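About this split. The held-out portion is used to measure sequence recovery: a designer receives only the structure tokens and must propose an amino acid at every position. Recovery is the fraction of positions where the proposal matches the reference. Here is one held-out target exactly as it appears in the evaluation file.
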């Protein structure tokens, strides 16, 4: 079939053509024009789940400081919105996909936040950094085991009073993820539910 390759959006080095595209969206009254591309998640638009997350979760206050994490940043829409909302914070944009990281870095520069958005592969985030907030539209397609491993790796890096915001489609297991997180000892609230997506608020 033309156009079909073995790539997934979480492939480390996508082989598909990049074909850059402009993605425009508005969050909290601020307009963003970012670049996405083939071989990354949501190549041509803001993902509807990410849109629900950014609309429903509590964006960081303008005076929020410290380190914020966009886990699985893709082309970086969440990281750019966090940087736009909290000019005093440092934002870590983490992804396994090299092309996604390059796009996220370019987009951070586009929104004038290159000096406080740190784009990194997972292993390159210094071990002593803890996060005031963790934001993620997590990679459900890596499978339940991979997803659980990912969350068990990063949630414990929340600061004691830190908060994590996750968005998961109900039909992709939003409610079972909620249950599993609760079983792991996290406080989990269904903060919002819209268009089939659950926005979960997770704290210690
Ligand atoms: C559902 S996409 C969300 C992308 C972006 N945040 C957005 O909203 O458009 C999940 C992202 O997680 C990344 N990912 C997959 N496995 C990962 C891992 N182990 N560590 C970090 N990121 C990972 C994928 O490459 C993908 O970009």
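Reference sequence for scoring:
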């Amino acid at each position: 079939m033309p156009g079909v390759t073995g790539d997934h959006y979480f492939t480390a080095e996508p082989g598909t053509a990049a074909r850059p595209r402009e993605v425009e969206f508005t969050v909290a009254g601020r307009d963003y024009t970012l670049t996405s591309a083939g071989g990354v998640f949501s190549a041509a638009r803001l993902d509807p789940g990410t849109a629900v997350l950014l609309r429903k979760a509590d964006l960081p206050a303008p005076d929020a400081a410290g380190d914020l994490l966009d886990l699985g940043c893709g082309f970086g829409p969440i990281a750019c919105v966090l940087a736009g909302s909290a000019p005093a914070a440092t934002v870590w944009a983490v992804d396994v996909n090299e092309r996604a990281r390059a796009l996220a870095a370019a987009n951070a520069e586009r929104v004038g936040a290159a000096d406080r958005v740190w784009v990194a592969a997972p292993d390159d985030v210094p071990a002593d950094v803890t996060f005031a907030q963790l934001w993620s539209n997590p990679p459900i397609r890596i499978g339940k085991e991979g997803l659980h491993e990912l969350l068990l790796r990063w949630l414990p890096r929340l600061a004691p009073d830190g908060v994590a915001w996750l968005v998961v489609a109900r039909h992709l297991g939003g409610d079972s993820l909620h249950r599993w997180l609760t079983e792991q000892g996290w406080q989990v609230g269904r903060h919002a539910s819209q268009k089939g997506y659950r926005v979960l608020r997770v704290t210690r």
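Annotator remark: Residues 98-110 form the longest helix (13 residues).
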